[in-house]
Structures are given as C-alpha cells and as structure tokens.
Amino acid sequence: MTEQDDIKRYRQNLRAEQEAITLYERLAEAEENADLAEIYRKLMETERRHAEFWKERLRETGAAIPAFRPSLRTRIFRWMAGRFGPAFILPTIASIERSAAAGYAGQADAEGVNMPADEQSHARVFGYLTRTSGGLQGSDLARFEGRHRAAGGNALRAAVLGANDGLVSVFCLVMGVAGAGVSSGAILMTGLAGLLAGALSMALGEWLSVQSSRELYTHQLDVEKRELAEIPEEEVEELALIYQAKGIDAATARAMADRLISDPATALDTLAREELGIDPKELGGSAWEAALTSFVLFTAGAVVPVIPYVFLTGTAGIIASAVSSTLGLFAIGAAITLMTGRNPILSGLRQMAFGLATAAVTFAIGHLLGTTVL
C-alpha cells in the first residue's frame, strides 16, 4: 500500500469519526434525560480521540487536514433527533456503529489502539438504548412488578400462533381440495400430507432459528471473554454507561461496574446479561426442544380440520370439518386475549370470521379449478 493510499484511508476514517462527533453532539443536545445526555457526550469524547488519532497520522505524512462539513445523511439525522427525539434514530445509529467496527477490521493502526473494540462497544450501548428507548421504561417496570398481563407470555404466544398456523393452513388446504370435488379418501390424505409437511417445516425452521441464535450468542460470549481479558477497563466503562442508561447516577454506576468486573466469577455473566441481553446458561434454549414443541403445536392445530374425515365422508365430512375448525378458530382467538387483554368473545369471533372467510375463498377456488381442470 502506498503513502497516498494511507492518506486516503486516514481521511476517510477521520471523516467518519467527525460525522459521529457531530451526530452525538446533537443527540446530547436533544436528549431531555440528563443521564442519557451524559452518555452521548462520553461516546462523543471517544470519537474525538479517534479523530485526533487520524489527524495525527495525516500530520505525520505532511498531508493537509481537510475541512469538514457534515454529510446530507448526518444533517438529516441531526434534524430528526431534534424533531422527534434521539430514540427515533437509535436503531440506525446502532447499525452505523456496527459498520464502523467492521470498517476498522484489518487496519493494524486502528486495531493497535482498540478502535474496533470501541466501536463495537458503542454499538452495544446503542443497541441497549434502542431496546429501552431512554432508560427503564414503564413497560419494563410493569413487567418486573407483574402488572402486565402479557408478562411471561412468550411461550403462550408461541403455542397459540403455532396452533393457529396449523389449523388455518390445513383447514384452507382441506377446503380447497373438498371444493374440487375429490373423494373423501383423497381429502384425508391431502390433509394428513399437509399436516406432516407443515409440522416438519415449522420444526426445521424453529431448529435453525434457535440453533443460529445459540451459535451467535456463543460467538458474542467468546468476544466478551476476550475483551474482558484484554481490555477490562473498556468493559467497565461500557457497563457503567449501561447502568447510567437505566437511570443510575454516574458515580454509582461506575462503582457498580468496577465491583462486578473485578470478580471473575460474575464478570462474564454480568456482561452477557447487561450488554447482550442473554442468559449465558440458556443461550436461547434448546434447538431440539424448540423444534419438537413447534412440531407438536402445529400438529395440534392442523389435526382439527382433518380428524372428521377419519369417521365421515362426503358432505357430512366437509360440514364436520368446517364446524370443528370454526370452534378451533374461536378457541384460538379467545386464547390470544390472554396476551392482549381484550374481550375473549369478540376476539374469538374475529378470528373465526377471518378463518372462515379464508377457507371460503379456497373452497371457491378449488371448486372453480375442479370444474375446469378435473
């Protein structure tokens, strides 16, 4: 790489840091929460150190330091932060910081002063702020105090939605085939095939999702472990910023972070929970358990429109399948209110109406195709 290549890289890096400084300065000005404003200022100071580093590299080569004017994107972000509040653009900033960390990968001079680690740290802080949108919110307090009816409802939500997917998809499949006028035996085989294919697909998708999450969490924990060994002071600063984002004053947050990081038995566990939002003992749960659960839940819903055809044929089978599916749709709609807190009767009727309308459309399409194709 020639000196001109280095100069070009130095200027690009300097400009990126200056863009960040300009944006963080605006975030601090627009933030009404004093503790969060202080966090933005601390992040801005880190970017200032980075900017000075690149200016010094330019001075060493004798190259001029270019005048800086914020880009259109930064000016738009500054306006949005002032107009709608910093929380409005936090997800985008977190993404920018992750890109900045990746941009420094392979730059030996940047890695020598831990710039990639700094940017990764900033991305995690912004990721945390994105989730909390300005500290501990009322919804978080409600969750901890048990006031929210949806608290702890993730498993219930998965169960209800899994059963709903199975019931609606297979019900529509069965009604579409029935509308085509095929035999009851063919309808039963089609329903069972749809049940098995859907359940296996759901199980595989859930396994891939959970396993990928576990692998990602494992990688993130390895990164945290390495940073904890190599740059513990940076981890203390990052943890202190997160505690400040929760509303703890700077001195207390720093003291808590120092104490937690100094204990090897709790340091990694604390960082995993506070920075990454994961339980290092669970890592998102078992992929096989998730797959099996998804298979069972989908099957539980899908069997409802199929089972009548085991005992009945012809029009009686179609009617029985429609009735059992209608009752199933109503039950699922009512069960959803355990999470939403809405009226179970109204929710059940709404779910029933949507499901029947969808099935009616597939029956009509099946009938049309049956008269023209079969």
Summarize the structure.
The chain is mostly helical.
Labels describing this entry:
mainly alpha, Ferritin, 3 domains
Verbal overview:
The chain is mainly alpha-helical and 374 residues long. It folds into three domains: 3-133, Ferritin; 154-212 and 285-372, no CATH class; 221-276, no CATH class. It is built from 16 helices and no strands. The chain has helices spanning 3-30, 34-61, 72-84, 90-103, 108-112, 115-132, 138-145, 154-179, 184-230, 232-245, 250-262, 264-276, 287-306, 308-311, 314-340, 344-372. Helix 9 (184-230) packs across helix 12, helix 13 (287-306) crosses helix 15 and helix 15 runs antiparallel to helix 16. The longest helix is centred in the middle third of the chain and has 47 residues, at 184-230. It is elongated, with a radius of gyration of 28 Å. The model is unreliable at 134-154 (pLDDT under 50).
